[in-house]
Amino acid sequence: MNPSTLSVLQRMEAEGAENDNRESEHARKWLNLEPETGSLLSVLLRLSRVHDVLEIGTSTGYSTICIASVLQEQGGRVTTIERDPVKQARAQANVAEADLSDYVDWRLGEATDIVAALFGPYDCVFFDADRVSAPAQLNLLLPKLSRPALLLTDNALSHPEQIQDYLRRVDELPGVIHIVIPIGKGLSVAHLP
What we know:
Blueprint: H1 3-22, H2 35-48, E1 52-56, H3 62-74, E2 77-82, H4 85-97, E3 104-108, H5 111-117, E4 122-127, H6 134-141, E5 145-153, H7 160-172, E6 177-181, E7 187-192
Parallel strand pairs: 1-2, 1-4, 2-3, 4-5
Antiparallel strand pairs: 5-7, 6-7
Helix pairs in contact: 2-3, 5-6, 6-7
């Protein structure tokens, strides 16, 4: 990752921590990806050589920048979904500051509705939004995944009761290799052959 992109991420880390400490309402928190999870995400995407990534849950664009910086190198694009127009506008400004706008397609609205209308194919999906809706979104996405495919999901350890149905659904997929890595809030990593 180049120094100017790292500088944007570091600014976002500081601003995100300040915002989230100040805000009491969950919907107004930015809940940026932890830096170590962002680094692992970047490594996994580089090693997997993905080109077409779907991100569910943009927030202010921290993870979008982590993803797009890899896809810039690999000639790919990320489609990212956010339901909050204020967060999406902030994300667009952050991605532009990181000079990565050419590698991002923006979608605004409810993730499950948008996922149903997307065509794909995607070789990676990063779930970082509503964990309760993730199993339904996964079912909609399965026919839209290229193979092999990588499924990455944040908050796998921080919200066990909310994410258990998703993790169970992933484990049911034929031939899947699945592990939860105890980094940040827990990153679920699944490889579909």
